[in-house]
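Journal club prep — side note

Before the paper discussion, L.F. wants everyone to see what a predicted structure for a comparable chain looks like in token form. Sequence:
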Amino acid sequence: MKAKLKIVADAHIWAVESAFSELPGFDVELCVLENRQITRESLSDADILLTRSSTRVNADLLDHTPVRFAATATIGDDHYDKDWLDAQGIGWANAAGSSTGSVLEYMMTVLLDLHVRGLIDIPNTTLGIIGAGRIGGALAGLCEAMGMQVLLNDPPRARQEGGDRFVSLDEVLKKTDLLSVHTPLIQHGEDKTVHLLSHKQMDTFKGRGMINAARGKCVDNIALCDWLDRGDGRFAVLDCWEKEPTPLARLIKHPGLDIATPHIAGHSVEGKAANTQYIYHALCQLLAIEPVWDMYAALPENPACLELPVSDDMWHALHTAATSLYPIVDDHAAMCGWAELPEDELAKSFTAYRRNYPARRAWQHSPVSMAYADSGLLQMAHAIGIKLV
């Protein structure tokens, strides 16, 4: 007889029913709920909890329930009280690393967009990357391939690896034209990242632009507004915000906020599928069963090759390809359209947009054709992940 297993899962986990309805050796009862329906009462007879970032998983939710494993289909896990879970012997997992490719595509689109509008000159820009983990480390390689000089700040890696690969935050702030934040959210301790960039750091920064596609609280949004207020061509790109889903309206409306997106950098179809794959594998490991579900079998058919005109300017050609694959202007326009809404309506719009995000396919599965593309364009497209054929 198969062991019974009840799983309560957030309805907005990609392909949740396909992945978790059947598990080898178990009689699975899968209960798919909206976030607001995931309560202690709904978990009174559950073994497994699968969430996204809207559910805070802590003692208030899980105490006196039979839940023995919780996983979030998101990269970040600061909505999980990991210390409490560990103390209770409740296993937990996240999907760290699953959306790396999607975020890198977001970053390439941003950099190309900033370039064609004259805010940066890619080959003559020094980029400071704060946080050189999966995303920041990979981003450094892509940016160096484009000819940018890159300075890396990552104190944990610097302590562990030594050498001269990493520099201090103060050096990054003083020597770079553009900052890009890619740290996890760490609340306490030596490597605390909450308000890593606050008034003091922004006052020290000698460059013109800042990007945050990491965690909202890593950047003090009021300090950022004050820094942008000083003008001199300063600009910012934000995908992550303090107080989501009610970001600071003053910041959304700021003329120096060049690109505003509602925390969707990792939201390609493949990124969301990988979120599910990661927590599926974590659950299979817990249950000591062989995984049988494969995200690639569940993905929609790959899009047809996109025919685009070529440009005499390599950067404009790459921008055309990137923004055709990912029309970032649509996300920016949507978010700017919410700036005048009351806070409750802003929160609803922010949340609804993320939950119903238009399909955005990974570049590796989205071929692009440009007539008469030369070898330099082909080489650069390949280097930054665009599948130019």
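L.F.'s comment for the group: DSSP finds 16 helices and 13 strands in the chain. Keep this in mind when we get to the figures.
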